[in-house]
Amino acid sequence: QVQLVESGGGLVQAGGSLRLSCAASASIFNSNTMGWYRQAPGKQRELVASIASGGSMYYAQSVKGRFTISRDNAKNTVYLQMNSLKPEDTAVYYCNSYGLRTFWGQGTQVTVSS
User: What is the spatial distance between Cα 13 and Cα 45, in angstroms, rounded to a whole number?
Assistant: First the structure.
Protein backbone atom coordinates (compact mmCIF):
# COMPACT_ATOMS: atom_id res chain seq x y z
CA GLN A 1 0.00 0.00 0.00
CA VAL A 2 1.33 3.41 -0.96
CA GLN A 3 1.87 5.64 2.04
CA LEU A 4 3.25 8.99 3.05
CA VAL A 5 3.35 9.46 6.82
CA GLU A 6 4.32 12.84 8.23
CA SER A 7 5.47 13.61 11.74
CA GLY A 8 7.18 16.39 13.66
CA GLY A 9 4.62 19.18 13.68
CA GLY A 10 3.67 21.06 16.80
CA LEU A 11 3.55 24.38 18.60
CA VAL A 12 6.66 26.53 18.79
CA GLN A 13 7.44 30.14 19.63
CA ALA A 14 8.59 32.56 16.98
CA GLY A 15 12.30 32.11 16.34
CA GLY A 16 12.18 28.44 17.23
CA SER A 17 12.79 25.35 15.14
CA LEU A 18 10.96 22.21 14.11
CA ARG A 19 11.89 19.28 11.91
CA LEU A 20 9.24 17.54 9.86
CA SER A 21 9.69 13.99 8.64
CA CYS A 22 7.85 12.10 5.93
CA ALA A 23 8.31 8.35 5.62
CA ALA A 24 7.31 7.05 2.21
CA SER A 25 6.72 3.71 0.59
CA ALA A 26 9.76 2.78 -1.46
CA SER A 27 7.74 2.63 -4.67
CA ILE A 28 6.91 6.33 -4.50
CA PHE A 29 10.16 7.60 -3.07
CA ASN A 30 13.18 6.35 -4.98
CA SER A 31 12.63 7.99 -8.35
CA ASN A 32 10.15 10.70 -7.38
CA THR A 33 10.51 14.33 -6.48
CA MET A 34 9.57 14.79 -2.85
CA GLY A 35 8.12 18.03 -1.64
CA TRP A 36 6.58 19.87 1.26
CA TYR A 37 3.51 22.02 0.78
CA ARG A 38 1.59 24.07 3.30
CA GLN A 39 -1.89 25.45 3.59
CA ALA A 40 -2.86 28.18 5.99
CA PRO A 41 -6.51 28.86 6.87
CA GLY A 42 -8.24 30.66 4.05
CA LYS A 43 -5.26 30.35 1.71
CA GLN A 44 -4.31 28.12 -1.16
CA ARG A 45 -1.89 25.25 -0.72
CA GLU A 46 1.61 26.38 -1.69
CA LEU A 47 4.86 24.63 -2.41
CA VAL A 48 7.42 25.27 0.31
CA ALA A 49 10.35 23.14 -0.84
CA SER A 50 11.11 20.15 -3.01
CA ILE A 51 13.99 17.81 -3.69
CA ALA A 52 14.39 15.69 -6.79
CA SER A 53 15.71 12.15 -6.83
CA GLY A 54 18.98 13.52 -8.13
CA GLY A 55 19.21 16.00 -5.28
CA SER A 56 18.30 19.31 -6.91
CA MET A 57 16.26 21.49 -4.58
CA TYR A 58 13.71 24.25 -4.78
CA TYR A 59 12.66 26.68 -2.05
CA ALA A 60 9.88 29.22 -1.95
CA GLN A 61 11.26 32.70 -1.56
CA SER A 62 9.51 33.11 1.79
CA VAL A 63 11.51 30.27 3.37
CA LYS A 64 14.91 30.60 1.70
CA GLY A 65 17.70 30.70 4.24
CA ARG A 66 15.43 29.40 7.02
CA PHE A 67 14.21 25.99 5.83
CA THR A 68 16.26 23.07 4.57
CA ILE A 69 14.89 20.05 2.74
CA SER A 70 16.79 16.78 2.64
CA ARG A 71 16.19 13.15 1.80
CA ASP A 72 17.54 9.91 3.19
CA ASN A 73 17.25 7.38 0.41
CA ALA A 74 18.17 4.49 2.70
CA LYS A 75 15.21 5.29 4.94
CA ASN A 76 12.80 6.47 2.23
CA THR A 77 12.34 9.62 4.27
CA VAL A 78 12.30 13.30 3.42
CA TYR A 79 12.89 15.98 6.03
CA LEU A 80 12.12 19.67 6.36
CA GLN A 81 14.25 21.48 8.91
CA MET A 82 12.55 24.73 9.78
CA ASN A 83 14.53 27.38 11.64
CA SER A 84 13.76 30.97 12.62
CA LEU A 85 10.07 30.20 12.43
CA LYS A 86 7.62 33.06 12.07
CA PRO A 87 3.90 33.27 12.89
CA GLU A 88 3.20 33.41 9.15
CA ASP A 89 4.67 29.90 8.84
CA THR A 90 1.64 28.59 10.72
CA ALA A 91 -0.13 26.07 8.48
CA VAL A 92 -0.84 22.43 7.87
CA TYR A 93 2.22 20.98 6.16
CA TYR A 94 1.76 18.21 3.62
CA CYS A 95 4.30 15.80 2.23
CA ASN A 96 4.07 15.21 -1.51
CA SER A 97 5.49 12.62 -3.87
CA TYR A 98 5.52 13.64 -7.53
CA GLY A 99 6.22 11.24 -10.37
CA LEU A 100 4.01 9.41 -12.83
CA ARG A 101 1.38 9.86 -10.14
CA THR A 102 1.08 12.30 -7.26
CA PHE A 103 0.58 11.25 -3.67
CA TRP A 104 -0.14 13.25 -0.52
CA GLY A 105 0.34 12.67 3.16
CA GLN A 106 -2.35 13.41 5.72
CA GLY A 107 -0.74 16.66 6.88
CA THR A 108 0.79 17.83 10.13
CA GLN A 109 -0.06 21.06 11.93
CA VAL A 110 2.65 23.63 12.58
CA THR A 111 1.71 26.53 14.81
CA VAL A 112 4.11 29.39 15.51
CA SER A 113 3.15 31.72 18.31
CA SER A 114 4.29 35.32 18.48
Answer: 23
Taking CA atoms, 47 is separated from 13, 44, 94, in Å, by: 23, 10, 9
Question: What per-residue string of b and e applies to 2-11 under the rule 16 or more CB within 10 Å gives b?
Answer: eebebebbee
Element (H, E) at 109: strand 108-113
Q: What is the mean pLDDT of the chain?
A: 95
pLDDT tens string 15-34 = 999 999 999 998 888 889 99
**pLDDT exceeds 90 at position 59:** yes
CA–CA dist 99, 96 (Å, integer): 10
